[in-house]
Design a protein that fits this description.
The protein is about 75% helix and about 0% strand. By secondary structure, the protein is mainly α. It has a single domain, classed as Mitochondrial carrier fold (Alpha/alpha barrel), CATH 1.50.40. It holds the Pfam family Mito_carr.
Length: about 350
């Protein structure tokens, strides 16, 4: 963070670049975490988490790295859109408050400004993230449907030649497990749920606005305090990294249960093998998950998420702040020469 006057466009562009770098670096962890959220095996959250980790390790061992980047292209588009919208309106709101009051926003004001920017961001970009989440979980869901089909087949066709049965299963797995593209998933959503299907998980997503809002409020307050303590005009990359990581840790711990619910709602499909995961809405999902899987389900995969989100937030803040700082410095040098 620096003491240069913030510019809406610069902040939006720097934020988008920082977020893209963080996304690419941590995307395999995001995919793993999504698959942990949708795993449902009798309510044993520990077993589900271990199974998802084992699946990820197996993919890396087979050099199937591509599957861990399912949905990366639309995710990059969504990241640019989200960060541009969020940072633009956050910077605009902070600048408007500073102009009205004559001082920088404090913690409470930062939280309110961040919340407003977050709500606009969710309403404008949720359709992209719904499709990304479905793409990340798609291979897992397809595999579970195939395994269920195989079980039924074993009971009704035990007399079929083993070699023929095995080959048919392999072909079915290849067909069912094939990764679908962005537009394939979009067509499925439109066919099953219509336009409203693109806003699946809207309620928890709006409530989860508190996550980036808390994150930015924590970070801005801590950064301003640090600069006052050190009497410096800007923070070092290491200081930004540490403050960004700390802010994200606090925000994630408070809002993680809503992320699990949102992911479940976004991957809901009429073709899902487990009827119990066909939720009618956020309230029904929360009640069903708590009753059938226990309260621990709401923190399933928390270790993976903390690793990913803290690293991503620290990288994003570091890249964003340093890019913006260099642009402001270059602009000042040019202005001084004129």
């Amino acid at each position: 963070m620096s003491t240069f006057a913030k510019d809406d466009v610069v902040e939006a562009a720097a934020g988008a670049i920082g977020a893209m770098c963080a996304l690419v670096a941590t995307y395999p962890l995001i995919t793993l975490n999504t698959r942990q959220h949708v795993a449902r095996r009798g309510g044993d959250a520990t077993t589900d988490t271990d199974a998802a980790r084992g699946d990820a390790r197996e993919r890396w061992r087979r050099a199937d790295v591509k599957s861990m980047y399912d949905g990366i292209e639309p995710a990059l588009v969504g990241t640019v859109a989200s960060q541009t919208v969020y940072n633009y309106f956050y910077a605009r709101g902070a600048r408007a408050r500073a102009a009205a009051t004559g001082r920088d926003a404090d913690g409470a004001s930062s939280l309110m400004i961040a919340s407003g920017a977050g709500i606009l961001n969710v309403l404008m970009t949720l359709p992209i993230w719904t499709l990304v989440t479905k793409m990340q979980a798609d291979v897992k869901m397809a595999r579970e449907r195939t395994e269920n089909d195989d079980g039924d087949e074993a009971e009704t066709r035990a007399d079929v030649d083993d070699a023929v049965t095995t080959r048919r299963r392999e072909r079915r797995r290849e067909k069912e497990g094939a990764r679908r593209g962005f537009f394939d998933v979009a067509r499925d959503v439109m066919r099953e749920s219509g336009v409203r299907g693109f806003w699946q998980g809207l309620t928890p997503s709006l409530v989860m606005v508190a996550n980036p809002a808390l994150q930015y409020a924590f970070y801005e307050s801590a950064a301003q305090w640090r600069m006052r303590q050190t009497r410096k005009k800007s923070l070092s990359a290491l200081e930004i990294f540490a403050l960004g990581a700390t802010a994200k840790f606090g925000a994630t711990m408070l809002t993680y249960p809503l992320l699990v619910v949102k992911t479940r709602l976004q991957v809901v499909s009429k073709d899902m093998a487990d009827d119990r995961m066909r939720y009618r809405g956020a309230v029904h999902a929360i009640r069903s998950m708590a009753e059938e899987e226990g309260l621990g389900v709401f923190y399933k995969g928390i270790e993976t998420k903390l690793t990913q989100t803290i690293l991503a937030a620290a990288l994003m803040f570091t890249v964003k702040e340093k890019i913006a700082e260099n642009i402001y410095k270059a602009r000042s040098r040019v202005a001084a020469r004129v």
